């Protein structure tokens, strides 16, 4: 082989025969480099096949032995060699290899290939198809000088080598290795340059995006600062003009002191902001009856970070005005440092709620009375008529039957009077909260509610098996339930399903923090759900506002839910509402549960009533009640001795004290000896006496005598009460363990059908 003068020889001189073939352009694949031989002579093809093929002689080893060159012992890899007889055919192979992703590394091109393209023309066209291919021009003549070749091929001569024929096999092999390595390095460098270019472009795009984002942030910050200044000015204006008083209380060593109040305090209280912040202003201006609520709210906010209270505040003119106080706790780390609150004058709302409750009660009672009066009076007429017919033949009956018929007629008359009073009822009633079960409130109204909603709506009541007592006014709860049911009825004009459920729930402090109205503790929950039209999202925030309604004009004043809200708040509870259009609505009312059921004189109702054979001293001044109670007890196996007054009861006791196992007595009785006094005198003689008190007065009236009412082996029932409650109280008191014994032995069970 012979290199043309002027051509750099580095590529050939640096290569050694020991170097194996380089990988092709496909990274990660171990395949031999591709070589293309373009020559019109078959003999040349055979020569190259011998030199570069897998089965050819190891000419490098021969050369090493000939010239005495030490050669490393390593395997010789083969090249993948293709052949073409002319330039056009060679161009097609190069184009095909390029498109397949397996380009040729070297093309050996004969200078003279008649007819058709010569070597220079072929080289030019090959480089247009693949600019990276290394070309070796093979010639036996000096057709062109190197300058002429360079002039025709231009800069592409960097990938050109001229090989004189006849060529030496060793030099052909060395040149092939060297050019293959050069081609491989070129491909690697090109790939890395492409990667670098890609990284530069990506980084440029990132920097450009970051710059655009930064410019946007700068612009946005300028707009935000301007908006902040405008908002601050607007806020100052609103705080000054708002009728709501905003204030701040600082907390130092558990002491809470007002430090700032908005100027609107003058409009609400008549006092300046500086006067409101005086240390003794709040205790001296909050109504004495509400101060405990204020202190309770401040205690609660330290636990749950928020609180709300409604109380009366004395104006400078001496009049008390109702305010709603909502507070939020601010902490620095775990330590509370400040309370931020708002005061809103709700005097008009309170007065309106009072009027609305009375008006709504009248509307509800009138609606119920109109629905039941006719049928109820018919039923009374039938009962009384049959009883009077039987009384006409009184000689045919036993004295006991005759007396029962007279009691039926008397009770029918009294019931008729109650119906007339119900229809004429229009005056205010004192609120008398007492311990009760939501289950009982709902159960007692089920028939009335079914009549109220009509036959086209299905009523379903689901009661929790175990419910805590609540301290509430039963009349107000009934009014609340009626309003919710009427609201559900209006949402289902074409019929549907109304579900009323009760359950007992407990909330922790975490729940109270995220629910503004809630507070931690145990609650009784009343849920009223319907399948009606639902409530639009935009209406939910205004649902409990007075006079807010979505009904047509004349269809209702929009006071029902406002009344419900006021009743629930008066009972220190809250309401949760969930609804979607065309998916019905659900109202959940949460009322605080009493901490200790036993303190309320309530007895759990037994599922299976048991009687006994003990002797009971019954003391009741109302003859009808006394007679019916005696028959009830005797039907359950008890022996009964009765007395109409305390003096008669003492006389009965003096002659039969050893027989009596229990005293069942009314509390309020004539002739100067009350039921409590009677129990005290009898227990003075027999301390282990078991007593069940009955009273038609509120339970707190009995608390005036805690020494007797709240002592062991004592029960209290409120009149009127279901007979199951009375029987359960009697049986429970009799079964209570005697002092010094583990448990009294219950008497044989008796049952009767009432």
Notes on the protein architecture:
This protein has 754 residues and is of the alpha/beta class. It folds into four domains: 184 residues, Rossmann fold, CATH 3.40.50.2300; 104 residues, PAS domain (Beta-Lactamase), CATH 3.30.450; 169 residues, Histidine kinase-like ATPase, C-terminal domain (Heat Shock Protein 90, 2-Layer Sandwich); 132 residues, Rossmann fold, CATH 3.40.50. It is built from 23 helices and 22 strands. The strands form five sheets. It has a five-stranded parallel beta sheet with strand order 2-1-3-4-5, with helices on both faces. Helix 15 packs antiparallel against helix 17. The longest helix is centred in the N-terminal third of the chain and has 73 residues. It is elongated and about 155 Å long. The relative contact order is 0.05. The N terminus and C terminus are likely disordered.
Q: What Rg, in angstroms, do the CA atoms define? A: 53 Å
The order of strands across the largest sheet is 2-1-3-4-5
Fraction of helical residues = 40-55%
CATH class of the largest domain: Alpha Beta
Percent strand equals 15-25%
- Cα end-to-end separation: 130 Å
Number of domain modules: 4
Shape: elongated
Structural class: alpha/beta
User: What is the CATH topology classification name of the largest domain?
Assistant: Rossmann fold
The CATH homologous superfamily of the largest domain is termed Response regulator
Low-confidence stretches: 1-28, 70-77, 420-431, 598-607, 698-702, 740-754
If classified by CATH, what would the architecture of the largest domain be?
3-Layer(aba) Sandwich
Largest sheet: 5 strands, parallel
What's the β-strand tally?
22
Helical segment count:
23
Summarize model confidence as the mean pLDDT.
78
